[in-house]
Amino acid sequence: MARNKIALIGSGMIGGTLAHIAAREELGDVVLFDIAAGVAKGKALDIAEASPVFGKDSKLAGADDYAAIAGADVCIVTAGVPRKPGMSRDDLLGINLKVMKAVGEGIAKHAPDAFVICITNPLDAMVWALRQFSGLPHNKVVGMAGVLDSARFRHFLADEFSVSVEDVTAFVMGGHGDTMVPLLRYSTVAGIPVPDLIAMGWSTDAKMEEIVKRTRGGGGEIVALLGTGSAFYAPAESAIEMATAYLRDKKRVLPCAAHLTGQFGQDDMYVGVPVVIGAGGVEKVVEIQLNAEEQAMFDVSVDSVKGLVAACKALDPSLA
Ligand code: A3D
């Protein structure tokens, strides 16, 4: 059976980490693409030279020509610029929109059958624009943010409850920004909802509020600590989970920036919602019931994404 081919568009901090994990997991052969050809080739060679030690046979290559991604089963897009301390994700829009145009056209020409996972920020607007530029079916283009935001939420909850991260499920909906909506009511420890754990005296509402706030600012916390660039280990792990769900038809239920066609009251929008990912790409949007307070928070978050999409349309009239 032929190996899967994974194209990583952007070979910076997240791209390099993705390549390392994909090779170690033997998820497929890996092509690192970057306008900085040396970085792509250097990282591919470095990981290939590590492969005899970790004992896996994925092939790795680096390139600055889109022809190299031909026939990719999965494309993971991190091309663009990350934020620096003091910047918001939205400050990246102008520069990264131009990058999405080049990437979308490259994927459309060379890997039109791929499942495309966008990570470039500001995420929800960039995945919407990437889909427009590529013309790929909406179910084959998705954004990674919810898995990461939920992983941060799960980590903080597991820490607070002193339980294994494996037993904490939690998810975050909405846009990937400070208005994201971590849902305590849908978060559990081994199936026990967080509100029940509070009633059992495991923690307090005030502590949960702190965790929700820390989750919302999770990306900024890392940016401030690193001083240069943004998070890359957790974002890469999160995108690999989504790629694996597609390649192995696992039907995982994961929060992702997916295209909405009326669900949650939104149309032609990419925003974070729970979806089923399998061999068909985004196979289903899971339309959970939100209470009035959750819906109001979700609407605020969606409004901020709408503002960014409008800014994309203003900058590039071909998107209008
Ligand atoms: P970085 O290490 O700077 O890598 C970006 C790479 O993109 C660099 O190697 C560039 O040379 C390359 N690049 C720039 N323009 C192009 C182009 N036109 N074609 C191909 N390659 C190009 O950044 P990073 O890997 O740390 O982050 C990548 C993106 O992910 C940024 O926009 C971050 O803001 C974003 N990010 C998103 C999340 C989410 O949860 C959504 C989390 C963390 C980072």
From TrEMBL:
Q: What are the Lactate/malate dehydrogenase N-terminal domain coordinates in residue numbering?
A: 5-143
Reaction equations catalysed: (S)-malate + NAD(+) = oxaloacetate + NADH + H(+)
GO molecular function list: L-lactate dehydrogenase (NAD+) activity; L-malate dehydrogenase (NAD+) activity
Enzyme class per UniProt: oxidoreductase
**Keyword terms:** NAD, Oxidoreductase, Tricarboxylic acid cycle
User: What is this enzyme's EC?
Assistant: 1.1.1.37
Does this UniProt record's set of keywords contain Membrane?
A: no
Q: Which GO terms describe its biological process?
A: lactate metabolic process; tricarboxylic acid cycle
Q: Which family does it belong to?
A: Belongs to the LDH/MDH superfamily. MDH type 3 family.
NCBIfam families for this protein: MalateDH_bact, PRK06223.1
Q: Which HAMAP family match?
A: Malate_dehydrog_3
> What is the protein named?
Malate dehydrogenase
